[in-house]
Structure formats: structure tokens, C-alpha cells
Amino acid sequence: MVTIGSKAPAFTLSDHNGKSISLSSLAGQWVVLYFYPRDDTPGCTVEACEFTSATHNFSGLNAVVYGCSADGTESHQKFIEKHNLTVGLLTDADTSVMKSYEAFGTKLMYGKEVQGVIRSTVLIAPDGTIAHHWPKVTAEGHAEAVRARLAELIGCVATTTNATTTTTKSVMTKLVTMKPVTTKAVTTKAVMTKPVTKPMTKPMTLKLVQKKSAAAKPATKNTATKNTATKSSVKKIVAKTAAKKSTATKTATKNMAKKQVVVTKSKATKVPASKGKTVAAKPIQKGRGKTKA
Fold first, then answer.
1. Which residues are catalytic?
2. Is 29 strand, coil or helix?
3. Superfamily name and number for 12-164
4. Tens digits of per-residue pLDDT, 78-107?
5. Alpha carbon distance 19, 185 (integer Å)
């Protein structure tokens, strides 16, 4: 089985020029080994052309690209010439290498199970181990997916090993430069807030006190004036009430005197009547003797 991290199966195959290419001769660089069914078929053409278009991208990542099928050297050359391919094409006539990479076996074709080449890709690391495996792929867009994965793996290696320290140094530089900037910003804010806070509170307090005292003076004068007016009006009302009471008292005294006079007169004129006779009352005359009826 093809397992990520395991040693890639060794191989030695002829390329489109008849030159022997072995995995050991490619050590020290990344190897993209993709398996395809047949030269100049629609899907295989799309895949080969996309890898060709991305050749410079793979070269920049220290990687070489090889396609492998059961086609012979002559077929590979025609295929390359027809589509101006720049990738190397290897011939695995007996499919032994493909089988060792699980690229040959049972597959579905037009709804039927057949034995044949399985379109798949293996990414081999510079140390000869399998870095990634695509067991079944779609031709269109696959080259870009391989390039992206390769770039991701190279980025991880650069971060976890001591071979390249540029990334670590740049991160440390950013952290160091951020500290003084933060301290300065905090100090500046603290200095700026103190002079702004003190001058604003005192003038505001003095103005409010002055306004309150100025508003209180006219209020005091008005209150004193109102109190004086109230006292004088109360005195006038009390005097009028006393005068009315004295007048009423005098009138009541006169009326009482008149009533006493009338009562006295009426008592004096009344004489007890004799039995069976009516005696007319006579007025009382002043003198020593009594008047007989």
C-alpha cells in the first residue's frame, strides 16, 4: 500500500528520449509522478497540458514532473510534439511500477469493471518518502491542486526545521518592534489626559458658584420686599377689623340701653285689675301722696 511517510517504491524507467530515469537519481528534489491511461486521449491531454503550463511554478519549488503510462517511446514523442509538452513521460510497459504505486487495477469504465491504469498521482519528498497520494483524480484542475499542496508542504518544512530561519526571524522582529511602540502610545495617552482634566474642572466650578451667588442676591431682596409688604397689609387688615368690632360694640350698647328704657316704661304703666271690674290705668304723677283710682 501507498502510505504517506513511507519509503517510495524504487523504479528505473525509460523516458520519451529513451534515457533511463531512476528514483535514486532524482534524490534531493521533489518529484511529481502522475499515472495516466493513454497518450493523446482527451482527459490525458488536458492533464498533460495543465502540468506543462505550470512547469515554471514547479521548477520554482524545486520539483520535477513526470507522467507515466504503458505507451512506448514513439507514442510519447508524438504526444509531446503534438501538444508542445514540457513534462517528461516515462514508459512502464509491464505496469509493474504502476502496480507498486497502486495505479493499476480494477476500475469502472462506462459502468463496467475493467483492469487498467488508474489515474492517480504521488508526490515524493527529496528524502525519497511519499509526501502525498491522490489515489483517484479528475484531470482538469489537478495540476493546480498538486502545486498548492507542494507549496503548503514546503512552507511547513521551512517552519519546523532549522534549514531556513527567515520566517522565524521576521516574526521575532515584528514582536520586538511592537513592544516599544505600544509603551510609547500608552505613555503619551497618560501625559495628554492629565493637563486636559485639571484646567477644565476649576473654571467650571468657579463659574457655577458665581452664577449661583449672583442669582441668590436679587432673590433675597425680592423676599425682603415681599415680607415688608405682607406685614403692612396684615397691620391694615387688623386695624380695620378692630375698628369694625368697636363700632359694632357701641351699636349693641345703644340698643341695649333703648331696650331697658322701653321695658321700664311698660312695667310702670301696668296696674293689677280688680275682680270683676276693669280699671283703666292712669299715668303716674310726681308728688308725695298716692293717687287713688
1. 44
2. coil
3. Glutaredoxin (3.40.30.10)
4. 999 999 999 999 999 999 999 999 999 999
5. 67
